[in-house]
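A.,

Following up on our hallway conversation. Structure tokens first:
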């Protein structure tokens, strides 16, 4: 159970920016020539950014701080840290998600800088403890129905808030200077690009989140400059606030590229229309029932129960950690044969009726019925309008005998060639992406292509390794595999 104090801290993103870091951010902004007429901090907390900005930007005429916690507003107004020069500092207690930002900012003349540190909590984390400090539920990222249901609609609250701030600054001169996760900064750039919004310049400066916030995340200062017409969709990436060295990420062929120079050298390998479709493994959300270990030549489920069912719907299983283990091509067959995990796959395609199992495999049907309560309690909406005992991530591709597989969670490109085990295809969990092959020779030729230095460099030019799931099917699909296979013949 999360204690009330901790719950409130997480819900409202109440992790105050240290004054030392706020001062370093303002110093960097001054070095960049930033000189706003008005500064706005939309979630000002105890006011460290207000204090740092007041002592840094000496030509700024007004600082506006908004904060939902009235105690923090009182703390700010009670402090005697304001500089002696002419500066109006206004604070107001208000809820970010209910405040009329558009009207307020229209009242403010000149160049505006929005500065601060929005909450880093995700919408799903808020949902875990019924947090209310988040926007109304809308699929603002425009994910498809299934993608939204299965998790892609989960977002950082700061991402939504940053998008609002970008819209405030459209068609006027202004700046955005926000601390955030690096992944959120890239998502914001993707949003600006997809909506063809105005952007003059963008940069990120890595910060030590462990030092300043005791958080194990990749974080940065995100800086954006806006005017009334520019549309420059790139971002300069700096290792720290102190360094002048950077590399530039940007768009090529409608995709955000990590290493533009490397990608351009290998762009002949890129073709999102090549027709290759990497699939993800099976999603069942009930491992204690659906997964088994083999002990003394018998199956045992996650409850420790010995399971006696037909082999019809039981398949050898490799999880992402199995696929990610480093072993070379010649060890692959040996490793596959050592698989001791199995999974129950009651369908051959999504939405297939399951009642017929009782005729084909009565022991399997009895087992599913016995554990029906566990399966019926699965929370995801994808199961609600589908046949009982359904799974997802299943189709003809699942049962292809030969597969090339890779785990999306690990930070290395370690492709594996997986062969059948005891005349059955090996299947994967949903952290794994794979291509299925009916022909052994074609699978082996494709595998050699994926192990080639050129293909590895091509993928590395596209992958941002700091992301939670850096390897994505959308990236894997971009390789023109048919063209490379044809060149081998």
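Then the amino acids I'd put at each of the 489 positions:
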């Amino acid at each position: 159970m999360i204690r009330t104090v901790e719950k409130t801290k997480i819900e409202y993103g109440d992790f105050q920016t240290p004054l030392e870091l706020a001062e370093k951010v303002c110093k960097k902004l001054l070095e960049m020539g930033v000189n706003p007429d008005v500064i706005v901090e939309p979630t000002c907390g105890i006011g460290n950014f207000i204090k740092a900005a007041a002592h840094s930007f000496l030509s700024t005429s007004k600082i506006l701080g908004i904060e939902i916690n009235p105690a923090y507003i009182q703390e700010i107004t009670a402090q005697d840290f304001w500089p002696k020069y002419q500066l109006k500092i206004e604070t107001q207690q208000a809820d970010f998600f209910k405040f009329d930002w558009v009207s307020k900012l229209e009242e403010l003349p000149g160049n505006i800088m929005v500065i601060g540190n929005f909450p880093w909590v995700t919408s799903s984390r808020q949902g875990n403890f019924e947090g209310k400090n988040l926007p109304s539920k809308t699929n603002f990222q425009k994910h498809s129905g299934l993608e939204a249901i299965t998790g892609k609609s989960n977002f950082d609250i700061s991402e939504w808030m940053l998008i609002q701030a970008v819209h405030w600054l459209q068609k006027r001169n202004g700046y955005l200077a926000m601390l955030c996760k690096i992944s959120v900064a890239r998502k914001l750039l993707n949003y600006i690009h997809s909506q063809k919004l105005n952007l003059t310049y963008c940069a990120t400066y890595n910060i030590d989140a462990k030092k300043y916030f005791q958080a194990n995340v990749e974080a940065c200062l995100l800086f954006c400059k806006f005017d009334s017409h520019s549309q420059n969709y790139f971002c300069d990436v700096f290792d720290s606030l102190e360094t002048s060295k950077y590399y530039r990420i940007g768009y090529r062929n409608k995709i955000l590229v990590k290493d533009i120079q490397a990608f351009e050298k290998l762009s002949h390998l890129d073709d999102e229309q090549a027709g290759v479709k990497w699939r993800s493994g099976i999603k069942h959300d009930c491992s204690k029932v659906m997964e088994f270990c083999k002990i003394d030549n018998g199956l045992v489920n996650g409850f420790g129960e010995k399971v006696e069912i037909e082999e019809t719907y039981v398949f050898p299983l490799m999880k992402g950690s199995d696929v990610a283990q480093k072993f070379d091509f010649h060890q692959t067959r040996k490793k596959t044969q050592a698989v001791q995990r199995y999974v129950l796959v009651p369908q051959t395609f999504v939405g297939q009726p399951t009642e017929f199992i009782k005729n084909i495999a009565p022991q399997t049907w009895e087992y599913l019925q016995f554990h029906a309560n566990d399966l019926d309690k699965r929370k995801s909406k994808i199961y609600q309008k589908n046949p009982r005992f359904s799974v997802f991530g299943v189709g003809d591709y699942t049962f292809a005998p030969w597969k090339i597989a890779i785990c999306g969670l690990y930070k290395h490109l370690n492709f594996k060639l997986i062969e059948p085990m005891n005349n059955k295809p090996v299947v994967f969990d949903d952290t794994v992406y794979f291509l299925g092959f009916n022909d052994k020779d074609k699978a082996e030729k494709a595998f050699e292509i994926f192990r080639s230095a050129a293909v590895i460099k091509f993928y590395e030019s596209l992958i941002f390794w700091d992301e939670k799931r850096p390897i994505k099917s959308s990236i894997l699909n971009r390789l023109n595999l048919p063209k490379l296979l044809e060149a081998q013949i």
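The chain has 21 helices and 20 strands. Curious whether your intuition agrees with the design.

B.
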